[in-house]
Write a structure and sequence with these properties.
hydrolase, alpha/beta, eight-stranded mixed β-sheet, carboxypeptidase, protease
Length: 730
């Protein structure tokens, strides 16, 4: 620690105790770090950590743990870059703080606030040079409940003339506890909003529980049943961050072979039993290193920890004696607001412990005047071969085909249709880091070609490398795309008869998900996905447009302004460099002169959306007993998962399995349900992919590979889409 104190990276670091209480019977440990910017002028922040009994956060990061004493590295985003911060272990029994009497270990909300105020006054008396600095009280989680209480104590102390008089400016709370009952009551609506529970489960809970999910009537059996369903869907979710793995520290996995996977569900896996290649990053690992560091004798000596006072440092003391004697701090927020103190209330939008919806609720309850509308805020600018089709093969469709790495002769054959229209098909590889030269490929370890033969096609003409011999052939539409893709498939199989007996699936994401059932229906000889274009867009926005977002009233300025705020851009620069290389095009056998410039998405493509909805195609395929997998990334705003759920519900299928989580390596990967017609033949499975966006496999490759692999194992072979050789000759 002496080396750290002398490090030029620190302006000043101090670690000490300050006694509070009538006889200083409570000894609160703190460490203080001066601002790296301008300590004399930068604000002073007293930081209160969350959860009574949990030690304050470290302003440093720990290097990769190798079994020795952990080493610190500077956190490049520490708030000490711009502020002087006092990190305090409070109340007694937390971290290195202790009491000299048993009575001193009995804590409560009011006592904690009082002692923190006493601590701050004594600290400022010992450091008078910081009395003139702007002061803020900050806390997250449960500390966010205590922060406004301490701030109000300081305000009252200033009004009473207590010394030293501080320059209190306001307070900061993050995902803060405000009212336990109201905060926890927002968990069910939040879980529904984040696709952790189904519409049916939420509607059942909402209607039967009358909005009371924390303390329901014990005689209300329907409500209790609904809450049990909610619990089953969320019990394996990491509540701190719903997209992070929920980690366990258990004994190694028993040496028992795993059964054949016949559904999307995954057997629980102990985290520590995974190989190094399989192991997931867990926030818990960072906490483990803090135990090793804080309980080291040399460290405790450098920290001036009083010997014999702390037998074992714990990050969170679960045995702390603590009374929550203040049910709600809403009145504290109100009083501070009336006194014109500034407040910053922030929330992580993936927190299930204290959902952002609870923060929004108590802020609305303050009845404040809205200065500015809800808006984004940004940091660093960031909110092969050809087959001819057509009457005279005037359209030349480019494709590349990759055999399955498993068993090409038996594994299914998938025709993959990319989104767009006008966008080139996805690559089955990953790019290495770009160094300015021709980009190099590396194999995607989660490519679906691990278990299937896949044809990636650029369609229609004008997309990627495909071209047309006539200007008329560049005029495209939904119907023409479906017809040409079907023709392509027939010709491809005629050229590759060894794949005729493989199970065949037509797949597509985004707009390709609209064309896929049209192609499948043509193959079937009858004559989440963009299903109905207006329906998908209408779910994106909810205000100002009167329910019409796809074709709004041009005179509705508020609606047009709202829609203008929603925009996304994707950068695929590496693919441009690679695909426009002469050497690459020569290796791909791209016909010279047919392409002046390869574009991933051709925005000038002539394309008519002549099929408004493919709902009837889904119905007809379902009635014929074909299997369907409809998946959605739950963080996609282009085609939201809610639109996928809506058109599936409109099919009026029978629900085989309730909405439930599905897992990969013991971690939640999303939610799933099975549905079918009133027959044994047709089944539609709809999984959501947790944390995935548009084109889910590119965001969650490992989970999506597991999804497709399990689905292919689950369905019956006799219902696969087969094309017989005789049919192709007709």
């Amino acid at each position: 620690m002496k080396e750290q104190e002398q490090s030029p990276k620190f302006t000043y670091l101090k670690l000490r105790y300050i006694g509070v209480g009538e006889k200083d019977e409570v000894q609160l440990f703190y460490y203080f770090i001066q601002s790296e910017n301008d300590p004399d002028r930068d604000p002073l922040i007293l930081w209160l950590t969350g959860e009574p009994g949990c030690s304050g956060p470290l302003a440093f990061e720990v290097e990769a743990f190798d079994g020795s004493l952990p080493s610190f590295v500077i956190n490049p985003y520490s708030w000490t870059k711009i502020a002087n911060i006092i990190f305090i272990d409070s109340p007694a029994g937390t971290g290195f703080s202790y009491a000299t009497t048993s009575q001193g270990y009995i804590n409560s909300d009011n006592k904690t606030a009082e002692y923190n105020y006493s601590f701050l006054r004594k600290w400022l008396l010992n450091h008078p040079e910081f009395v003139k600095n702007r002061l803020y009280i900050a806390g997250d989680s449960y500390g966010g409940k205590i922060a406004p209480m301490v701030a109000l104590e300081i305000a009252k102390g200033n009004e009473a003339g207590l010394k030293p008089r501080t320059l209190l400016q306001g307070y900061i709370v993050g995902n803060s506890r405000t009212d336990a009952n109201k905060d926890n009551n927002e968990k069910v609506p939040y879980a529904h909003r984040m696709a952790l529970i189904s519409d049916e489960y939420f509607e059942l809970a909402n209607s039967s529980c009358d909005g009371e999910y924390v303390n329901p009537d014990p005689k209300n059996i329907q409500c209790l049943y609904a809450l049990q369903l909610v619990k089953e869907c969320t019990s394996h979710i990491s509540e701190n961050h719903i997209l992070e793995p929920k980690c366990k520290f258990m004994s190694p996995r028993p040496n028992v072979p795993r059964p054949v996977q016949l559904s999307l569900e995954d057997d629980p896996v102990d985290l520590l039993s995974l190989s190094k290649e399989e192991q997931l990053w867990c926030r818990n690992y960072d906490y483990v290193t803090s135990y090793v560091w804080a309980n080291n004798e040399t460290v405790q000596e450098a920290l001036h920890i009083k010997k014999g006072k702390i037998t074992e440092w714990k990050r969170c003391n679960k045995s702390l004696s603590y009374e929550e004697d203040v049910p709600s701090v809403l009145k504290y927020h109100q009083l501070l607001n009336e006194k014109d103190f500034q407040a910053l209330a922030y929330s992580g939008d993936h927190d299930l412990i204290l959902p952002y919806m609870s923060t929004l609720k108590w802020i609305r309850d303050l009845n404040l005047t809205l200065d500015e509308d809800w808006r984004p805020w940004i940091v660093d600018g960031q909110i092969a071969g050809y087959i001819g089709v057509g009457e005279k093969d005037e359209v030349q469709l480019f494709y590349y085909f990759i055999e399955s790495e498993n068993d090409p002769a038996r594994d299914p054959l998938i025709l993959w249709l990319a989104g767009g229209p006008g966008c080139s098909g996805p690559l089955a590889f990953d790019f290495e880091a770009f160094d300015g030269s021709l980009p190099s490929f590396i194999i995607n370890p989660y490519s679906w070609t691990k278990i299937a033969n896949i044809i990636f096609i650029d369609s229609p003409a004008g997309t990627g490398f495909p071209y047309a011999n006539t200007s008329q052939a560049y005029n495209n539409s939904d119907s023409k795309s479906a017809q040409y893709n079907y023709s392509f498939m027939r010709k491809w199989l005629l050229n590759h008869p060894s794949f005729l007996k493989n199970r065949l699936y037509i797949a597509g994401d985004s707009y390709g998900g609209k064309i896929a059932p049209m192609v499948a229906l043509k193959i079937a000889k009858v004559t989440t996905s963009s299903n109905d274009s207006s329906e998908d867009k209408n779910i994106n926005e909810e205000l100002n447009c009167g329910g019409e977002y796809a074709s709004p009233d041009p005179n509705n300025i508020r609606c047009l302004y709202a829609l203008q705020l929603v925009n996304e851009y994707y950068d695929h620069a590496l693919s441009y460099v690679w695909a426009n290389s002469e050497n690459v095009q020569e290796a791909l056998q791209i016909r010279q002169g047919t392409k002046t410039d390869w574009k991933r998405c051709n925005k000038s493509l002539s394309y008519e959306i002549d099929v408004e909805s493919v709902f009837k195609h889904h119905q007809l395929l379902n009635e014929k007993g074909f299997q369907a997998l409809a998946y959605s990334g739950d963080h996609d705003m282009i085609v939201p998962y809610m639109s996928t759920l809506k058109w599936i519900r409109d099919l009026n299928l029978t629900l085989d399995d309730d909405w439930r989580p599905w897992t990969v390596d013991g971690q939640i990967a999303g939610s799933v349900f099975n549905s079918r017609l009133d027959s044994e033949n047709s089944c539609k499975i709809n999984p959501t992919n947790e944390g995935a966006g548009h084109a889910a496999p590119s965001y969650k490759p490992k989970e999506c590979l597991a999804m497709i692999q399990r689905w292919l194992s689950y369905i019956h072979y006799r219902h696969s889409l087969l094309m017989e050789w005789d049919d192709l000759q007709n």
